[in-house]
Design brief:
Length: about 250
């Protein structure tokens, strides 16, 4: 009770004009969370999925507009088959469990990454969730699935090369805007804040173009333990930073 009151007080103290519009999270540490408890790695991923639900509450109470979650990278296929299969089932479980809540809370689902490379049942679950929430205009919950920052850039280069080959675009007119528009994140503002849990300090091929000016925040807890307090602390840190975008 006191905890909730204290969090609400801290939330109230935040500058409303400096709330990050887009937060992107590298949800790391599920496996270690499970190992510490003598559980199989997949139990960590299940707990990680539950943490998403809590995180959504926190995002809504702060009025964050976009949340991108790195759920499966183009490199994660190297994991054991059983773990990959488990991860590929999570979107279906998540949408099955959460669709009503997403709708009630006006949350719109989106996805970035190569959907064609996903199993059909995963793709279908995601498309179903996107379709059912497409008219919502509250928080945009964006899953990065089978996503890699380098892949994103290669694909954008291919899209632009095709436009040039078709005579629709002159090479001289290729600029930052046309490249941004060819990325999976087309239409989504760049993240203001990137959070990575688990104490690892690296980007791991996540949104390489889009995070050029993002503030980075590395949090020591494992993703399944990430709660509203961690989120609030990250946003407080963000608000203390002086973003200059190369200026003075
Ligand atoms: C990294 O931790 C986590 C992942 C690769 C998977 C993240 C997925 C979820 C939290 C659930 C996704 C849910 C939906 C609905 C798509 P790790 O396994 O690398 O942890 P470790 O570094 O401790 O081994």
């Amino acid at each position: 009770m006191f905890g909730k009151w204290f969090l609400a007080k801290r939330r109230h103290k935040l500058r409303k004009d400096k709330i990050p519009r887009h937060i992107a999270i590298i949800m790391d540490g599920n496996g270690r969370w499970a190992r510490r408890r003598g559980l199989p790695r997949v139990a960590g991923h299940k707990a990680g999925m539950d943490a998403i639900q809590r995180c959504l509450e926190g995002m809504r109470s702060l009025d964050v507009r976009y949340l991108t979650l790195y759920a499966f990278s183009t490199e994660n296929w190297r994991r054991p088959r059983t773990e990959v299969d488990f991860l590929m089932d999570l979107p279906k479980q998540f949408i099955g469990q959460e669709l009503d809540t997403l709708t009630k809370n006006n949350i719109r689902l989106g996805v970035i990454g190569d959907l064609d490379g996903l199993p059909q049942h995963t793709r279908e679950a995601i498309c179903h969730g996107i379709e059912k929430t497409r008219d919502n205009d509250g928080l945009f919950l964006n899953f990065a699935l089978n996503y890699g920052g380098r892949d994103d850039l290669v694909r954008a280069a291919q899209i632009i090369a095709r436009q040039v080959a078709a005579g629709e675009l002159s090479p001289d007119l290729i600029d930052k805007e046309s490249l941004s528009a060819a990325l999976y994140t087309r239409g989504i503002p760049d993240p203001d804040l990137v959070i990575r849990t688990s104490g690892e300090v690296r980007i791991s091929n996540f949104m390489l173009w889009q995070i050029a000016y993002s503030e980075l925040c590395f949090v020591d807890c494992f993703w399944p333990d990430f709660d509203e307090e961690h989120l609030l602390r990250a946003v407080e840190t963000f608000q203390r930073r002086n973003r200059r975008f190369g200026g003075v």
